[in-house]
What we know:
Elements: E1 20-22, E2 25-27, E3 34-39, E4 44-50, H1 54-69, H2 78-94, H3 96-107, H4 111-132, E5 140-141, E6 147-155, E7 158-162, H5 168-182, E8 185-189, H6 196-208, E9 215-217, H7 222-231, E10 237-241, H8 244-255, E11 260-264, E12 270-273, H9 279-291, E13 303-307, H10 311-323, H11 343-358, E14 362-365, E15 380-383, H12 390-393, E16 400-406, H13 409-417, E17 424-428, H14 432-441, E18 446-449, E19 468-469, E20 482-490
Parallel strand pairs: 7-8, 7-10, 8-9, 10-11, 12-13, 12-17, 13-16, 15-16, 17-18
Antiparallel strand pairs: 1-2, 3-4, 5-6, 6-20, 11-19, 14-15
Bound molecules: adenosine-5'-diphosphate.
Amino acid sequence: MSTVVTGRRSQTPLIRQTQLFIDGQWTPSRSGNTFTTIDPATEEVIAQVAEGDAADVEMAVRAARRAFDDGPWPRMNARERGRIMLRLADLIEAEIDELAALEALDNGKPVRDARTGDIPLALDCLRYYAGWADKIHGQTIPINGNYFCYTRREPVGVAGQIIPWNFPILMVAWKWGPALAAGCTIVMKPAEQTPLTCLRLARLAQEAGVPDGVINVVPGYGPTAGAAIVRHPGIDKVAFTGSGETAQVIMRQAADQLKRLTFELGGKSPNIVFADADLDAAAAGAHVGIYLNQGQCCCAGSRLFVEDRIHDAFVERIVAESRSRRVGDPFDPATQQGPQVDRAQFDKIMGYVDAGRREGATLATGGGRVGERGFFIQPTVFTNVRDEMAIAREEIFGPVLSVLRFSDIDELIRRANATSFGLAAAVWTRDVTRAHDVARRLRAGTVWVNCYDVFDAAAPFGGFKQSGFGRELGERGLEPYLEHKTVTVSLA
Ligand code: ADP
């Protein structure tokens, strides 16, 4: 195969929004600068996007502040807020094919995945939180003395939201959903690799009736636009999804103002297959676990622990199925795996493939580039991996699986937990007692039993240890966007 994507695409989507969205207006950046976003399947430039920096963030924060301090959004009938959010979901659904194409173009993910996975989950999230809008209430508390004491739950204020490039539309929904339901206003920075669908969603939010200034979008780079959001005193809370290194920078920068923070960071999740498992399901789960979204998932099941007794046969199967995976044009409906998002990610992943080889792991399949253009990487499996190797410890964020062997369960748990991450884990077994026992003992925010990557807007998601703090989704996901106020009234 020489090139993976050839010729013009029949489905090239329209790119309609490339400017900043501030206070309901589309504007160029104050500096006039733009940055390019590329199609990772062809490496061609697809759009020039306004590059926001501190001056633009200043305008966006002012707009969000006004909308929060004086505007209708936090004050309106909560049920009306929910209705506007439902309208936004309906507008997204009406454009689902076009949005899926735009997502595939900007990110490289197969259009079919965006159409059947990312966007339905985003809709689910917006609709779920729309339902919360009028169900956020406090308590009455019987305190000592002649007092009437109650709590109110109020929006935290202006939320700064910084998101990554791996699930651009879905991350917007995870961030906007709870913030809007709570009555917060927003300054969002999409990732510089994938700004296009976020801008389109801002347009749809306006059409749905979200008042001006409630949602502001400032595309740009992390150290400029992102850092300006983190540092701005007009931002009450920062929600960040991305790398642990960036989270450390953000935490330091937010310390001066004791800003509220929630982080959803990386992982090196163990996916554990016992000999008694349904091995068809486990093999399919191992594939989803590592290969979903080209391996660019914070919860990727990148450490596959396989019980000794079935190890060789199971690995043979994983390797054979990896070889038959269809890597190619994201716009081809038969494609299972598209390109990595950009050259930096491509190079980083290839660096880990080299490290795996150097450290003595066996490259059972893959390890190379696919084609000559675009950031395509072969589905890759390393066997004979030892716990101390870089490929078993560090997040690769690509289609690279490390297979590890185990026999004793206590030893397995110790090894599975011997990581600074704790985002997700999975266990495959038919023994119900063992399944619950292992689920209890794994130090991770999500444990899947006989399944992988099952997401629902109602189920909280987030990390133990250095995989982050706070939770997204579910009732827990609303918490970071709410303050609790205690009101005590003398009845004397
Ligand atoms: P990745 O390595 O997956 O790209 P990053 O953590 O670098 O993850 O990026 C996630 C998001 O954080 C992106 O929107 C990026 O622009 C932003 N970002 C990067 N550096 C900073 C920073 N210093 N302050 C705020 N945001 C940042």
